[in-house]
Amino acid sequence: MNKMKYSSKVLLYKRTDDSITYHPIYIRVRARNKSVDLYTNFSTTLDKWDEEQKRVKPNAKIKGIRAKEINDAIATTQRFVEEFFDDCNFREVTPTLEELKVKYQRISKQEAEKLEGFFDIYAQYIEESNIQRQWSKSTYETELRTRSKLMEVLPKITFTTLTTSNLNKFTTTLSATIANGKLKDYVKKLKAFGKWAKMKHYPVCEDLENYSMNKFHDGQKEVRFLEIEEVRCLWELDLSDNRRIEETRDFFVFQCFTSLRYSDLKALKKSAVSIKGSDYTLSLFTQKNRKKIEDYLLPDIAVEIYKKYSKNNYENGVLFPVPANSQYNEYLKELGAIAGFKGEWRDVSFQGSERVEKIIPRTHLTTHVARKTFVSYALNQGISQEIVALATSHSDVKEMIPYLGITKEGKEQMRDKFNEITK
């Protein structure tokens, strides 16, 4: 029997999001025109990685772990691959990459249980899931916070001690400083980790899966959107003496008429807009969930904004010179103050059983207000939920509910309908 030829390479999974600095280290094994990736459970930053040697640079430390320990793990994985093929050849059986992967995962799990412990395995889950599911930056950061909060409250927790008693301690402690909605999200993410761990045969306590958060009441955030008259007011403001705020106004109004998220607005290319006769259509893949928005017909005001900026050349061929998210939201607050909108939004939340009310002035504009303005106005105008969901790239109509507010016009229509049937 001829020996199977194979090759293996040490690689980094280089993230496209510049804000995420740690890149997982893995071994790619190829045989018979197929490949499989074996992750080492370690990550590194680019500045501490020797691309030529395919090792972490000597004397470097990654998250407190010495380079030697990480490099030894890489070498061990390479030896495992070599020994796997040698063993198959000795036994005269044809090795498959699927067998290699399964065997590696089993041994990797056993080593993790023995050497790493609960929170290291939790970190592995976050890194692995982030790669497989292509989490957004905010989701990735929330997962990290969940792990961090659990470590603060229950530093000695294990899979078998995820009991109702310990989970009560976790939720009760956090409820003193965290709103119930966020606390429920932490528990939801902890349960997802438990489900993943159970699939990998870790001894997860059944209490986690069955743990109820019903005793923690939900709050209610008022939908923050603008009436169409307020959007028109913004559009008609003379801001020619303040270019920064004028641009901010233009970007915000464009969002109000297209529902684009901040990430999509910032990445929007000139080439995303096509001109067909008198129609201007927008097509793109969204940054957050890679959903396709195709041939969305731009309303007249959005076309006017497009024409204003398309004659300029910005870096990377983008349509708008959109600032960083935090800076953009600060400019939006300035814009709201100039517009002088009257009124407020009220949010009610609970911390444990304590009711907390927060008042937000309508001048406090954010990029999310624009997206909710689009959804609220479109649905109140009678446009079908399915069509609006396609324009907003929501995968499910139910996902739009938190974006829906009743406009002044919608309230008047509802009143008039009731008046009609009672006359």
Main features:
15 helices; 423 residues; hpI Integrase, Chain A; three-stranded antiparallel β-sheet; 49% helix; globular; alpha+beta; 3 domains
Structure description:
It is a single chain. With 423 residues, the chain is α+β, with helices and mostly antiparallel strands. The protein has three domains: 7-116, no CATH class; 123-216; 228-418, Orthogonal Bundle (hpI Integrase, Chain A), CATH 1.10.443.10. It contains 15 helices and 13 strands. It has helices at 67-90, 97-116, 118-133, 137-153, 164-175, 180-199, 206-210, 228-236, 243-258, 262-267, 300-310, 325-339, 367-380, 385-392, 408-422, and strands spanning 7-12, 23-31, 34-44, 49-50, 55-56, 61-62, 65-66, 220-221, 273-276, 279-285, 292-297, 344-351, 354-361. A three-stranded antiparallel β-sheet has the order 1-2-3. A hairpin with a 6-residue loop joins strand 10 (279-285) and strand 11 (292-297). Helix 9 runs parallel beside helix 13. It starts with 6 loop residues before the first strand and ends with a helix.
